[in-house]
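Sample entry (147 residues):
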Amino acid sequence: MSLITQRVELARNGANDKVICRMPSGWAVMGDVQFLEGYCLLLPDPVVPSLNDLSAEARTTYLLDMARIGDAVLQVTGALRMNYEILGNSEPELHCHIFPRYASEPDDKRRMPAWFYDWKAAPPYVEELHGELRRRIAEVLSASGPG
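Predicted structure, serialized as tokens:
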């Protein structure tokens, strides 16, 4: 079972501590690491191989959910902008990385993709440290409605 499928199963069973909320297209979750505070992902439910495997309506829903998460993270964190990345090369199932980018980032990092950060040295998501941020993002998403 792939990592994305495992995380969706955990979310369905209420066992994924990084879940922000259920979205019309899937699950908004916090990233495993928080080198950019507010880093989230959108995991589709049901899991599919790629965006191209969704119907036009499902694609629209997924992409709108992705933008709604970005709007909420912007509102909660005061980030400068959002980066959205759908890759699927190492985990070949649809998932979107949603990265807040900050004016306070070092120039050599801020102008580059988030993948240039040292992920192994990044602070992990810890509920005691990041749970309030997760809850605030969930509140904004809840207040903005289902889509």
